[in-house]
Write a structure and sequence with these properties.
It contains twelve helices and ten strands. By secondary structure, the chain is of the alpha/beta class. The strands form two sheets. Strands 1-2-3-4-5-6-7-8 form an eight-stranded parallel β-barrel, surrounded by six helices.
Length: 312
């Protein structure tokens, strides 16, 4: 790969930063096994808590003797997030290797991270957003395509990748129902530098997700994913049964963002009780330790490469 930050990454997978799910345990386990772990800054309720996690991650790397120490922090770069400036200052102070920005490719964020040699990857769901982020100077684009968990788009992953690669020569990370090693091989063969996996890593022992959430992912199929903007005002994929458990009809959701105090039990909350997941649930049949999952994906990757080579 084209940057020294990735020289010890031996398997090109980024475990996507997931709200209320990703944290120190998952990040460290991913990095210790040759992939890249990431978490949202807002998974800690304060900037002080964010700094504690950054210190803890480095301490765990030291304790384990990790060669691979490139990890990512996701920041919502939007005026609605009052923590953008203080969280960025902490990420700069601790020289976070990879900053993953969402909802805005801000010049001050990019310049701040570049100042110490870090990289900025930016989430996009379409070509228009990709061009704006590329013009802003990001190092990588995360193509959150059809089938991705969370706030994903509707573009076919390979079509979006081909069009973006036509004008962008930086890092490209492909997201959209990628769950196994064969999918990683396909993403790389199509021109991506990394595969981005979220849903698959929810069903790991290290994920902070509720056990019922993990079990629901294991027991769900493609038909159990609902694409809606009802829960945040932005379209995303959610688990049908979690919508039902919150007292809503997934076939008759409001066309606006739900007012949880009016439209349903105020004790229920998006993300905490209504769970996001992508189309990849169809390929998830058990909860595994992250190390075992990554080892399995590496073997699947090698087998996929052998199959292709044998047919060439």
């Amino acid at each position: 790969m084209k940057n020294k930050l990735f020289e010890n990454v031996d398997f090109p997978v980024i475990a996507a930063p997931m709200f209320l799910v990703s944290g120190v345990d998952l990040v460290v386990s991913c990095c210790a096994n040759g992939t890249i772990g990431a978490f949202p800054a807002l998974n800690q309720r304060t900037t002080e808590g964010l700094e504690q996690w950054l210190v803890q991650i480095q301490g765990e790397f030291d304790r384990l003797g990790c060669a691979q120490r490139t990890y990512g922090v996701n920041m919502i770069v939007h005026k609605s997030n009052p923590r953008v400036k203080p969280d960025l200052e902490i990420c700069i102070k601790h020289e976070v290797p990879l900053l993953i920005s969402s909802l805005g490719a801000a010049r001050e964020v990019i310049d701040g991270v570049h100042g110490y040699g870090g990289l900025v990857f930016h989430d996009v769901i379409n070509v228009r957003h990709a061009k704006k982020a590329a013009d802003a100077g990001v190092d990588g684009l995360i193509l959150v395509a059809a089938g991705a968990g969370g706030h994903g788009g509707l573009a076919n992953p390979f079509a979006l990748l081909s069009e973006v690669r036509g004008f962008f020569d930086g890092f490209i990370v492909l997201a959209g129902a990628l769950t196994n090693g064969a999918h990683v091989a396909a993403a790389l063969a199509a021109g991506a530098d990394f595969a981005y996996m979220g849903t698959r890593f929810i069903a790991t022992e290290e994920a902070y997700a509720d056990q019922d959430n993990k079990d629901m992912i294991v027991n769900s199929n493609l038909k159990d994913i609902v694409y809606t903007d009802a829960f945040s005002g932005v379209h995303g994929n959610f688990l049908r049964d979690s919508i039902i458990d919150a007292g809503l009809d997934p076939e008759n959701l409001p066309s606006k963002e739900i007012d949880f105090g009016t439209d349903l039990n105020p004790d229920k909350h998006a993300w905490k009780d209504i769970w996001s997941a992508g189309h990849g649930v169809s390929d998830i049949n058990e909860v595994l330790p992250a190390a075992e999952l990554i080892a399995r994906m590496k073997a699947e990757y090698q087998e996929a490469v052998k199959r292709v080579t044998a047919r060439a």
